[in-house]
Amino acid sequence: MQVFQNLLSKIKPHFEEGGKLEKFYYGYDAIETFLFVPGHSTHKGEAHIKDGIDLKRTMFTVVIAMIPCLLFGMWNVGHQYYLAAGEFTALGDGFVEKMIHGAIKVLPIVIVSYGVGLNIEFAFAIFRKHPVNEGFLVTGMLIPLVMPPTVPLWMVGLATAFAVLIGKEAFGGTGMNILNVALTARVFIFFAYPTYISGDTVWIADGVTGATPLGVGYLDGLAGLQANPNYTIENMVLGFIPGSIGETSLIAIGLGALILIATGIGSWKIMLSVLAGAFATATTLFLFDITPFAGVPPYYHIFMGSMLFAAVFMATDPVTATQTEMGKWIYGFLIGVFGIIIRVLNPAYPEGWMLAILLMNVFAPTIDHMIIQSNIKRRMSRALK
Amino acid sequence: MNNGVFKLKKGYDIKLLGKAESTYLDVKQPNLFALKPTDVIGIAPIPKLKVAQGDEVRAGQPLFFDKPTPEILYTAPVSGELVEVRRGGKRSIAEVVILADSEMNYHEYSPINPDTASKEDIVQRLLESGAWALMRQRPYNTAPRPESTPRDIFISCFDTAPLAPDHNMLIEGKEALFQAGLNVLSKLTTGSVHLGVSPDSADVFTKAAGVKVHAFAGKHPAGNVGVHIHHVAPLNKNEVIWTLKPQDVAIIGKLFTENIFDAERTVAVTGDKLKQTGYFKTRVGASIKPLVEGNLVDEHVRFISGNALTGTQIGSEGFIGLYEDQLTVIEEGDKQEFLGWLLPSYARPSMSRTFLSFLLPDREYSVNTNNHGEERAYVVTGQYERVVPMDIYPQHLIRSIMYQDFDQMEGLGIYEVVEEDLALCEFVCTSKQPVQKILREGLDIMRIEG
What we know:
The complex is a heterodimer of chains A (385) and B (450). Chain A is an all-alpha fold and 385 residues long. Chain A contains 15 helices and one strand; from the N terminus they run ααβααααααααααααα. In chain A, α3 (55-85) runs antiparallel to α10 (250-263) and α11 runs parallel beside α14. Chain B has a six-stranded mixed β-sheet with strand order 1-12-11-10-13-9. Chain B has a five-stranded mixed β-sheet with strand order 15-14-18-16-17, with helices on one face. The chains are: A mainly alpha (385), B alpha/beta (450). Chains A and B meet through β1, α3 and α15 of A and β19 and α10 of B.
């Protein structure tokens, strides 16, 4: 700790006004404030005492909530690989091998995502002369978790750069963006390089085919799912199925959700209402039998695909969600409705959550506006009484 | 409302060590008292002085007034010699300092019977004696306009702010004067005088005569008068409400029963950096010197006139503000902390549940003035709403001030709040936004241009 302090105080003069690295002050500032919470007292004219929470701690809590998904994802990438290869087919076998294989696949994606994103964040902070915001700590981890394990690294880099530049910085940076940044990265690949992120060849390993339960259910219905011994409801809950890196295990996602709800960082209202909207829509479609998922009971929709991951980590992004508490219920419910509609009724897209959330991101300000207007009207009518 | 009690669910109690003990401190009265024009919102930085350095003044004698409203006189809280007019930046007047006599010498007013006197005579007496300046009006929290008639008058009889004084203690010995003051005030409004009380309030408040008493229960800011107004009879555009504190009601009571302006003020002496906390009977604008001299646990502290959320920082020989009844002394938090955002090195109050201490809701904290992070753009939502027990969207209101949308500010209820009502938003804010400052900018815009 003293070492860091000495080092920082040694290099600080170069970054301060008049120093030769003056331009890079905010790069230095980000590192200094990362290591040491500054000794700033509360400013004149403000409350003298402040809550211990800050944006760094908030963002880091979300990152911690994603760690179970990341670790499980690494193992599962290895597990699916060895399953396809016919080795270590029992769950307990080859834990170390599976983790190593998964790590080799997953960690480079994480590193590329953080590397590209943070470089752009620092560059913008220095260029625009503002402190580096911590938002990318979360985005940088979300992007790998929604990628298939076989995605090429250059594509991750390109998508991250696109998402940060067009999805966030173009709107004014952290807190100003309309669209969820991590989903912008995914949607970029989805439309620019569709064969790398959908279909049945991308989920396990290069060259190995294997459709996800969602794909099987869509084409062959319940019978298709039952024909595959790996696609039992237990495996779907536990996550021993192919899919994007972080999305398969409901247990791991549930742990993350627990952390987010317990700390109050993630909105339980949004999570719950997404589930409610999805379940209601799936049930309606099932009852009227207007679904290609022949005979697949509605609750399967909760366990298949990326719905829970989307509900817990994507829909709850506070910047792009609705800001009013009432709005959060509406916003979440409509995500659930549209997600299932896109998944079930739209033959072009196998999965709906990415698009449903981005759609509702766009409508979130409208929902808030209506709620705010009703508050304003209430106040006006009170005055006229 | 349930059984006649407004039960407020939203809010947050910041529990700190250093609450005032229920005893009176045995220290001598300060020599110096001061009136600070900066305490009054909206008056010019250089008010017109009516006395000069070296003059002898009596308690209740005018010291200065604001040029646009010469009727409102700011008068001496004690008698003595005006020893100094301390200046701030650009020659503004920061403090008008009086060296107090050992024996009070009051300016005497002709007797007036509030029961028979006209409203104009009562107003005139309040204005000339300086008691008027103890009242504030909503919207804006400025001194009431001399020609205005309030729709109602609201008095909060309990305080829920950090280390807040117990108003039962503050009013002790002044019960009859309090009731006399209420009788005067009820002549001034077309509506009623409303008292906001807590379940713990003493009979002097709950059984006050000629007023409407409303009980409130809940966490801070349940004791704020703005919250009471919002729930009892919300303030609409073009309406005016007056507010004042119970002790100042007693000052008005004395003005009309004994015909003197006796600015008695009991203050709570609080904070965990003091060896001895308690209550101290003195007068408005008292120097804190005798309260803190030899009474500090260590020297690296901040002195606050008022509470830790809304008070004003003063020096070790500074003065308690015109509207304040509390001194808070806490540690200055200017130390940096290694990875403090991740692994806090000491316990700190937080409304968020990211600190394990949320499992100990009754724990009292030793607190310092560290900002615990830097200012950031808004990311988190729903935080402000949880600490404002009103039908108001605080974050949207603050944003509407940031982009100066007048209609939106008005529609979202800017007239119903002042800094203290949103002070907790500033405390809990993850993005460390200066909420009180932004709100005041908005209020100033509305007041000056509206």
